[in-house]
Amino acid sequence: MSESSDSSKDDELRIHLNEKKDPLPKQQPKNQKHQQQSGTEEKEEETEDNNNKRQQSTSKSIAKIIGPGVITGASDDDPSGIATYSQAGAQFGLGMLWMAPFQYPLMSVIQEMCARIGLVTGNGLGATIAKRYSTKIVFPLAALLLIANTINIGADFGAMAASVRLLVPQVPFLAACIAFAAFVIISIIIIPYRRYVKVLKYLTISLFAYVICAIIVGGNVGQITIASLVPHIEFSADFAMMFVAIFGTTISPYLFFWQASQEAEEDVDKGKEKEINSPQKPEISKKEIKIMRADVLIGMVISQLIMWAIIITTSGSLHANGVTNVNSAEEAAKALEPLVKSFPSAGLIARSIFAIGIIGTGLLAVPVLAGSSGYVLADTFGWKQGLNKKFKQAKSFYIVIAASTAIGLFINIIGIDPIKALIYTAVINGITAVPILFALMRIANDKKILGHRVNGKFSNIIGWLTFGIMAVSVVILFVTWGR
Fold first, then answer.
1. What's the rounded Cα separation, in Å, for the pair 101 and 97?
2. What φ, ψ does residue 341 adopt, rounded to 5°?
3. Is it the case that residue 387 has pLDDT exceeding 70?
4. Does residue 342 contact residue 216 with C-beta atoms inside 8 Å?
């Protein structure tokens, strides 16, 4: 018994000694814990900073891409254009919806040529045509463009003022017209170029009001898809006139001159040349050409998306309820309220959104219309030009812009119906577009002007196709005139 008790005591002693040799791990000091926590927090902050930097770089790269092409594409959907698309949807339902995807490559190729000419030469389109041919050719085109743009501005002011009255009936029509005209003139003259371009970029957001309207109105997805992809043609004078009206609204001469001059403005803003139409050509990299093309493609997508949305909206509301005639954009907006019944107050909401879209697009389009008049006349007469210049540096350029805007306002004051006047605008645009497109195609293939940055086969095929369609459209316009 004594031996067993002694052995058990020895075992206990060994266990006790082993516990002393292998103590439990010590707790970390508080300051060491704090250091580890702070290190983790620093890593998290670094990760957040990196994420923020990535987001900022992404937004900057997007901002670089969004330029003259987006503004040009968005300004194509001015209140007068909205009226045309609204009439197409009301009269033919989804029958002309296919024209949006059909026109996209045509519009993109033409505007890319204009942008490339402006970017590579640093000149406006009018100046380039004058150098390639003669000022005598540019002068009558400039005069016709000035008349058409001024009438269009008058129609846009009228639509914008009427839309304000839809939202706030107490506002007098003429007071709204005068306020819009004053805002446009003062903004163009006073606001510096970089800031003003940002304002125009933000105004493009107003176009998506029509996408919202299309969603509210709704429709059969299958029918919309088929109508978007399968061409529908009717052999009637009304269908032919509407085809010409839509095509003429989309492929419009003022967009050509604005696009080229804005690209030249960008050259000046980046310090690549002192002013527009400088003798020395700016040095343009491949990356800049790629950015320009991406900008144009995005802008034309926006333009045709909005046309597509407006036709869906008026087809699903007006045409579906037997309303087949719309004389103006604000009339289309007003007609939506009693017809759209997707949910409670859907009609009122659709009308209000449609009206807000008209005001926003008008504020975007009027400066582009007036600006293109200033650019083409400055190109013709060799004036100093550019929105990057102060009024004192380019008086004649700014006076043309102000006068074009003021006369457009005056059309509404004296009571001329700008909607009827738009018929003559369509004729003028058709007449001027054909020779301009011909000159554009020749210049875009001239190595003396553009060097190695001339058209490829695809651009030539689409470009000449557009020229042919526009020429046929003018013939149709005169054949069906008055019927």
1. 8
2. -130, 35
3. yes
4. yes
**Residues 6+ away with beta carbon under 8 Å from 413:** 174, 177
Burial 41-61 (b: 16+ CB within 10 A, else e): eeeeeeeeeeeeeeeeeeeee
Confidence of residue 402 (pLDDT cuts 50, 70, 90): very high
d(CA 450, CA 446): 6
Cβ(375)–Cβ(124) below 8 Å: yes
Nearest to 387 by CA among 376, 377, 396, 398: 398
Angle at 223 between CA 231 and CA 309, to 5 degrees: 80
Tell me how far apart the alpha carbons of residues 354 and 163 are, in angstroms, rounded to a whole number: 9
The closest alpha carbon to 372, from 6, 98, 125, belongs to: 125
Q: Which one-letter amino acid corresponds to residue 333? A: A
Rounded to whole angstroms, the Cα distance separating 206 from 332 reads: 17
**What is the spatial distance between Cα 88 and Cα 250, in angstroms, rounded to a whole number?**
14
Distance of CA 369 to CAs 257, 386, 401, 460, Å? 10, 14, 9, 27
Instruction: Tell which residue, 204, 104, 126, has the closest CA to residue 381.
Output: 126
**Closest of 302, 8, 245, 268 to residue 118, by C-alpha:** 268
Q: Residue 269 corresponds to which amino acid?
A: D
**What one-letter code names the amino acid at 419?**
I
> What is the spatial distance between Cα 207 and Cα 464, in angstroms, rounded to a whole number?
30
Write the pLDDT tens digit of every residue in 287-302: 999 999 999 999 999 9
* Distance from chain centroid for Cα 156: 17
